[in-house]
Amino acid sequence: MTASIPAKASAPHFQSFSEPSDPSQVAPRVAALRAALARQGLAGFVVPRADEHQGEYVPAHMARLAWLSGFTGSAGNAVVLADKAALIVDGRYTIQSAEQTDTSVITPVRMEETPLDKWVAANLPAGGRLGYDPWLHTVDGVAKLEKAVAAAGGELVAVTPNPIDALWSDRPAPPSAPVKAHPAAYAGESAASKLARIQEALGKDKVDALVLSDPHALAWTFNIRGGDVEHTPLPLGYAIVPREGRPTVFLAPEKITNEAGDAIGALGEIAPPQALEEQLKALGARKAKVRLDATTAAAALATLIREAGGTPEAGTDPIALMKARKNEAELNGARAAHLRDGAAMARFLSWLAREAPKGGLTEIDAVAALEAERRGTGLLKDVSFTTIAGAGPNAALPHYRVTDSSNRAIEPGIFLVDSGGQYEDGTTDITRTMAVGEPSPEMRDRYTRVLKGHVAISRAVFPKGTSGAQLDAFARAPLWQAGLDFDHGTGHGVGSYLSVHEGPQRLSKLGTTPLEPGMILSNEPGYYKEGAYGIRIENLIVVEERSIPGGDRTIYGFETITWCPYERALIEPALLDDGERAWIDAYHGEVWKRVGPLVEGETKAWLEKACRPL
């Protein structure tokens, strides 16, 4: 067991609080890009927040949008024309984008009001040539841009190399993290078995080959992991899986450990990334029909195949659904990881309950303390995302990231912590909202309504074929009854020592994929009062089959795998019905039974009190 956390924990290993943006650099960098575009006869250029794999995290040398605009959010596009420039972001980043860029040079634009294609159609001058990097846009994305440019009477032009690269004098080197084998005990299925299933799917779809452009698919298929991006153990690379025969994996050979190299080599070939283009051209020359993942495959891949005489087909990568349905080894690993993580959370929350009322703690102190507890397990590989730790009004920002400049003191009111860990046996994600001092009646009301929605998802039973969109309203109904709602999805899929945000399954108005046994999702309704406080409660859940006496349909429900008490000080029992109260009491009983033996001293005393029946 780890010792009690000191009042101030040491700096975290996996997170920093520096503010990487410098708005003063925006004007000279935009001016340099405009000069470069003029030399190429281009009226403008699109700069997405993307790498060649369309990943959630991009390696430092691919962060072109951040270099140019200063904006460091996880989604967005800049468009630079000769006389104007826009930074198009979704509603999560309205405030952040205005703070991080130079608004006298680049105008932040809300994507919900003016998406990228609409802005281009409205602002590109007639006859203007708009450049784009074909390695940073999907086939569908380019099709939208083509329509927009045509509407403006212009021309869309693929530009390589990317003009920003010549201007970026201190560009970081590409990542060189080792590629390691993922142990069979955690993977639960051999790479040979996975490849056989993939090739069977290609046969059914009558395609000749599949390009793995998503590094998550690459890692899952070949049972390998890497470290090329933050917080997700990914090796950045590609693979080509033919309908018959041996696949080829495209990874820098010097990054591959002997064990991983032997495992891949037993199944297929290993080639350097530069060889990808030639092999795609070879497929095209054979008139092959090649499946590309519509969500991650760069338009450049389709062009290479098509120009060589083949047929690129942008569609569904069959691996996505296979990866989403966890096998028993992966589920057992997730359960073990969450139990370990639950003990770390209990130690952290008991420390917070003791120290926060004294004053003097900040959001950064809390992030450092929680990471220290996870590291104290001895098994933490990384955090699964940058910890969201919001005090007071910062808790009302769902995707808040604390920096040295934004760091707030934890004062009486509400404190929200959304965090997770990457362990070799599983990926965790949990949110708890805590009261510091005496919460207001309104806070108790809102918290309890969020909890009611959270419990409704936890208790839900539903027939086979049901999608996340059909369940999403269960989480919102208690808030709707009070004229309230939240603007994010209720839950996302979660990987197995992979991305904490994994598709295609999700609990959301947009979640159309049917839920199937073995899928892991988050259950995280919330409520946010701008400028005041925010509330979110999150557990991870697993889809499982249920037996209902007398039923004549296949019925599913959810197994909860997160074990951590809710905040009693924020629960208003009068708002709960008997079934909700019984579920919460039973959940707390399980938390005490499972986590109690893993903690001691002050933490054990805190946990016992937190898990008492309502």
Automatic annotation (TrEMBL):
Family: Belongs to the peptidase M24B family.
Alphabetical UniProt keywords: Aminopeptidase, Hydrolase, Metal-binding, Protease
Molecular function per GO: aminopeptidase activity
Domain Creatinase N-terminal intervals: 29-161
Residue intervals of the Peptidase M24 domain: 334-545
Domain of life where this protein originates: Bacteria
Stated name of the protein: Aminopeptidase P family protein
Organism: Bosea rubneri
Residue stretches of biased makeup (Polar residues): 13-24
Chain spans, region Disordered: 1-25
CDD domains per UniProt: APP (cd01085)
